[in-house]
């Protein structure tokens, strides 16, 4: 792609996850099986929540959004990665790379904000139960959902805008299996210190702040439920534990990737694989397996069909 006679790179070449053919085939089989089994499960969760009149609480509305986000997120990297495993030359166009990067951060940023919204929902439900139905009414839920999508869009647009202003005149080999900010920036034909700093603030610092804020909010919730009844305490503890597990799965890799200088580390590709392919498909499943109401509705749906 040419832009003002500076950018001459028209495509990027992925180095890939590994150069070992045997390991590539092993990862291909494992990811394909995982993808084939778990991805339909996410859509089944959405169908279950939408078809059961008993699952109308805000918690299930947001869980359905999470399943949709994660299912959509899994289409950004995994299908192309599976095709590239079987290809000799792993090439993506400049525009394709920017598009992949945009949707990666659009959906990833949206999911990060959704987890914040879900934490707010649990805080009000457990710590302000008398005000819950008033505060978390349908209009508020839709407004929070819209804000989450808009937040992800703004976050991603900032990333893309910073990348588009960089000149790329070669080399064009990306040391990864997908397009992301740390690898793309390193190929720019200019000093990228300021851009890297802005990226760390936009992605890394925001991720870290949200992560610490979420942990603090759930710590407050757990402290508040200590004096509640045994049944209520058990349910609240189970819900909070589930949310905390997903928070670590979502934010842990993000903090590792985006809160440090964009230099290559040996664990980068493995962390990226789990962050972009494995964990997004697992998050809604974790919620479902630890939620008795959803499991019951899911069984009814499967039996009736």
TrEMBL record:
InterPro entries: GPCR_Rhodpsn (IPR000276), GPCR_Rhodpsn_7TM (IPR017452), Olfact_rcpt (IPR000725), Olfactory_Receptors (IPR050427). It is a multi-pass membrane protein. Its main location: membrane. Residues 41-287 form the G-protein coupled receptors family 1 profile domain. GO terms for molecular function: G protein-coupled receptor activity; olfactory receptor activity. It is found in: Cell membrane; Membrane. CDD domains: 7tmA_OR4N-like. Gene3D superfamilies: Rhodopsin 7-helix transmembrane proteins. Keywords: Cell membrane, G-protein coupled receptor, Membrane, Olfaction, Receptor, Sensory transduction, Transducer, Transmembrane, Transmembrane helix. One of its GO terms (cellular component) is plasma membrane. The chain crosses the membrane at residues 25-47, 59-78, 98-120, 141-168, 205-225, 237-258, 270-289. Putative odorant or sperm cell receptor. Belongs to the G-protein coupled receptor 1 family. This is Olfactory receptor.
